[in-house]
Amino acid sequence: MCISISQVSRFRVHLIGSSCYERVHGCLKINSSPRLLDVRASSVDGTKNRWIRRNASTSTTTQGSKRSSNAKSSVLGGAVPITRIIDAESVTKIQQPFETLQQRLAKNKDLSNLLTVIVTDLETSGLSRVKSRIIEIAAQDLAGGVNSTFQTLVNPGVPIFNANIHGIRNDMVCRPEVPRMEELIPIFLRYVESRQKPGGYAIIVAHNGKTFDFQFLINEFSRCSFEIPDNWLFFDSLPLARDCMKSVEAEVKLKATLSALGDYFNLSRDGEAHRALSDVLLLSQVFQRLTINQKLSLSDLVLRSYTVSDLTSAIAKNKKD
DNA sequence: GAGTGAATTTGGGAGTGCGT
DNA sequence: ACGCACTCCCAAATTCACTC
Question: Exonuclease domain: which residues (predicted)?
């Protein structure tokens, strides 16, 4: 049974399957081969210390006779190795020390009364996460209704160099009626809050959001000394689109851009490409088709989403690297 | 048990795709 | 142009089945 996310308010069946939860963000990378585990080995004097890959089981039985495993990896450099073999059960315990917010939330039997799905899109003054700023923001609550759509230009306070992309020029945003980000954030917060259900969560959806839109949003909130509410989750539609395009049998590999997805689902665009509202309206339709196509339930949506701390730790890690 | 070769798995680097 | 995630390819490491 497959239900579009757009039917949130009428949604009754919440779990189609948990198989979609392939990329558990925030967890340690799991070795795809259960037999192979990394074992740290060092010599007694501590001068040699390196990682080797070793069979978790040190012996196997073949045709009734016991047989030792690869002898080459059992001794290192002639010294007596101090090894710590980690069994699969221990690895599982290490990898899942806590239940994440998403896992806890996904267990809820009445997710439709908790979640608000808001599709967003940003236009920016450039591609640099450091130097560029948001110049337009649009959002749409998939549940629809009165005041479900939000759109505004933003005065970035910096020059716009990529007007050729979106057509937004400096003179369009440097006007008294165009809010600056610090003025807009409280308005945007009120908009999202007005769409949320009592005690519920908002899932902010954006295409390539993890590496673009969400980073800009988090940076702008931080720059303006605002905190992103704890009851916001973030969902990137790009991996979902890639999964969908991968499953399509076609002679030419299909792209996962928003425009290509619109064409694939035979959707018409209302407005110019690379304008926030136009892209949001298209992404809303595309996202609904993707959820149907990929049989994505609300719990899958929650499990594949990110908390703000998931995203900020990823940003911090990238800065460190 | 030792040795061999095919099959499988992993990790790194290069290239590509995605957003504006 | 910027920066991140993903994909593909290849070499190296490792496992496994088999023979002697």
Answer: 116-296
Instruction: List A23's β-bridge partners, or say none.
Output: none
pLDDT in tens, A236-264: 999 899 888 877 766 667 788 999 899 89
Which tokens sit at A274? 């690379």
Q: How far is CA A11 from the centre of its chain?
A: 23
Q: Which nucleotide is nearest to A254 (CA to C1')?
A: B17
Any atom of strand C under 7 A from CB of A189? no
Q: How far is the CA of A75 from the C1' of B20 (A)?
A: 54
Question: Does residue A303 register a pLDDT over 80?
Answer: yes
| pLDDT digit string, tens, across residues A168-209 | 999 999 999 999 999 999 999 999 999 999 999 999 999 999
Tokens of A9: 């308010």
